[in-house]
Predict the 3D structure of the following.
Amino acid sequence: MDNKLKVGVVGATGMVGQRFVTLLAEHPWFDLVSVSASERSAGKTYAEAVEGRWAMPTTVPGPAGTLTVQNAADADQICAQVDFIFCAVDMPKDKTRELEERYARKETPVVSNNSAHRWTPDVPMLIPEINAGHLEVIAGQRRRLGTRSGFIAVKPNCSIQSYVPALHALREFGPQKVFVCTYQAISGAGKTFKDWPEMVDNVIPYIGGEEEKSEKEPLKVWGSLKGGEIVPAKAPAITSQCIRVSASDGHLAAVFAGFDKKPPKERILELWQSYRGRPQELELPSAPQPFLKYFEEDNRPQTRLDRDFEKGMGVTLGRLREDLLLDWRFVCLSHNTLRGAAGGAVLMAELLKAEGYLKAK
């Protein structure tokens, strides 16, 4: 298509960057024209730069493999080639914030997988099916940055992608208390079993920073717009445990939830089955149809069997039953590098384009 937007991936050689490259290989709206990484990789072809570290189940896409890797710090050169960028760099937060704002101020929108701007009040942090309305804050962000078209939008941490949609579908009943225990795959750390053999036949009951993200980020997703900023919601109160498990991909969550008004089981299942967000309404290319799927079987969802539901963009649910301490408990599963990372960011970019925020320069 001649009207495709030109996109670059900044941080293209890491695991999430690789996932971006595979998702963009045949995308109907976006044309990958630029890949960039650290100075160490600059000057190589993309195929050369990822040789020996390619972690995707498919081979390097042919056209992407021939692109010359650019230095991610060379924003002027990259911005001259693209309409917007996906950012998946592995840098300290302060350096990431500086880099992303540099691109945005050069009138190049940034769709970020990084955590650096998740708590910037005028930066939308989207799960596209849940808080698409937060895109309105971009107008205020542009005023702060002094830009006409440049801005930053981010996706939340992968650990919240499975259980927040399930709870959001039940918001009419006022969820107030949530306990969640996540069982997170090693790809969430950018690892494979080949380069992290210690994880084979192992469980580690700690993932640095994940529990705070799991407890706080949903409140911004559920926040309200006020004075050109996003004000986080005050409820529900969430407490979490985040555990690294011996799975290649897929984050599973065990959820215990208490509500202002306890919903009937039949109504919960009905709301999960019928839930549709803005991406489904717009029929965006990456939007899962359906978004949520409930399994009646006692042993589902399973990470290996169900993480690829709707090409890894859907969320699967199961084991809904009453709880002795709160109201209900259930299990959720999402693919962490698809829905939780690159795929979620691509869906966000599709929403941004459909709503008029991404345009050709």
About this structure: The longest strand covers residues 175-184. The mean pLDDT is 97. The chain has two domains: 5-157+342-354, 159-335. The two ends are 16 Å apart (CA to CA).
